[in-house]
Structure formats: structure tokens, C-alpha cells
Specification:
With 197 residues, the protein is an alpha/beta fold. The chain has one domain: Toll/interleukin-1 receptor homology (TIR) domain (Rossmann fold), CATH 3.40.50.10140. It is 39% helix and 13% strand. It has 6 helices and 5 strands, in the order E-H-E-H-E-H-H-E-H-E-H. A 5-stranded parallel sheet has the order 2-1-3-4-5, sandwiched between helices. Strand 4, helix 5 and strand 5 form a beta-alpha-beta unit. 33% of the residues are buried. The model has no long low-confidence stretch (mean pLDDT 89).
Length: 197
């Protein structure tokens, strides 16, 4: 942690099924494996389910997010209804603003969005970033590994790792004044589009 950063990637996802089981069962392993093949040093990836027993998880999440280079946001309708997910997302977007990123002059930011499901329901904030669409491979069952579709998922995750590795190398230096949003704006359920019968 010489430069102040502890993690290269902070994975932010809703805790509801099928998102969390998909992240636990498929996404994290692929992300770590492929990032490891793209980076000179072993990548450090934070996932909230892997925190130490007994830790004050709320304070630890804030601390670890402040020490992370890139936020990988796994987008779903649940994501935009979750105060925790939106706090993580908005904190990094505010960091981009502080660092002068994600604008006309420097359009690349610090959020790497993954589309898990239903982009039609996202708030305007979710639509401002171009996402990597992995919704075709959102199977959370372990048997997914034995399917032919898993090979395509593997190819897509190689692309994710290449893009992330490139982004990680150009993240501005760490600062001790990175903002932490504690009262985020969540998407009210009443604004969600419902399918017609």
C-alpha cells in the first residue's frame, strides 16, 4: 500500500438473488483469474462477503472503498434501490468529479459498470456510463460452468480484464480526502417500469 491504494477493484453488487450468487459462483473467480493474466502484480479485489469475522462491516466498507482504484458496479434494478450500492457508486462518481474525470476533457472515469439485468429500469445516473453487457450469461447455478455458454462468458471476462487492467494503470494518485457519500439517492420502486400483461 505504498501509494495509499490497497485494492485495484472493489466489486459492488446487490445482495439479492440471482446477482449475489452469480458474483460469488462465477464472476469473482473469472475476474481474478483473468486480471491476474493481464497485470504485472497480483490484482487485489475487494468483495464485501470476504471481510474478516467480527469486523465492523459498515466502517470497513467505507475504509476499503476509499483505498480502491476502480469500482466494478454490477448493475441490476436492485442495485439502484440499495442504499449501500448507491453510496458506493455515488462516492466514486464524486471522486471522479474531485479528480476532474468523467467529463468532456477526460471521459474515462473510475466506475466500470457491468450490466447484469434490465437496463430499462435504471435511473439517469446508471445510463450516464457505458456498461459492459454480461446479461446474456447471468446464470447463477453452478451447472453453468458445464455449458457451452460458459466459454463465451470466459471470452467476455477476458475483455473485461483487459479493459480493467488498462484503467487501473492510469488511475490518479491516492488522496486522503476522497469523498464518502453516506446519504445516497436511491431509485424509488414506484418509478420502476412494469411489464404489460
Amino acid at each position: 500500500m505504498v501509494d495509499g491504494y490497497k485494492y485495484d477493484v472493489f466489486v459492488s453488487a446487490a445482495s439479492e438473488s440471482p446477482v449475489e450468487p452469480w458474483v460469488n459462483t462465477h464472476f469473482l473467480k473469472m475476474l481474478r483469474d483473468h486480471l491476474s493474466n493481464e497485470m504485472a502484480a497480483e490484482p487485489k479485489v475487494f468483495w464485501w462477503k470476504e471481510q474478516s469475522t467480527g469486523v465492523n462491516w459498515e466502517e470497513n466498507l467505507k475504509k476499503e472503498l476509499s483505498r480502491t482504484r476502480i469500482l466494478v458496479a454490477v448493475l441490476s434494478p436492485h442495485y439502484f434501490r440499495s442504499e449501500w450500492c448507491m453510496a458506493e457508486f455515488e462516492s466514486i462518481v464524486e471522486r471522479e468529479r474531485l479528480l476532474g474525470l468523467g467529463n468532456v476533457q477526460y471521459p474515462q472515469g473510475l466506475v466500470y459498470p457491468i450490466l447484469f439485468s434490465d437496463g430499462d429500469c435504471f435511473s439517469d445516473r446508471g445510463r450516464l456510463k457505458l456498461w459492459k453487457d454480461l446479461s446474456e450469461w447471468r446464470y447463477h447455478w453452478p451447472q453453468f460452468r458445464d455449458s457451452l455458454k460458459y466459454l463465451k462468458f470466459d471470452e467476455a471476462m477476458r475483455d473485461v480484464a483487459k479493459e480493467l487492467a488498462a484503467q487501473i494503470t492510469v488511475v490518479p494518485p491516492w488522496r486522503n480526502n476522497f469523498p464518502m457519500i453516506t446519504n445516497p439517492t436511491v431509485l424509488p420502486e414506484s418509478t420502476m417500469k412494469l411489464p404489460r400483461i
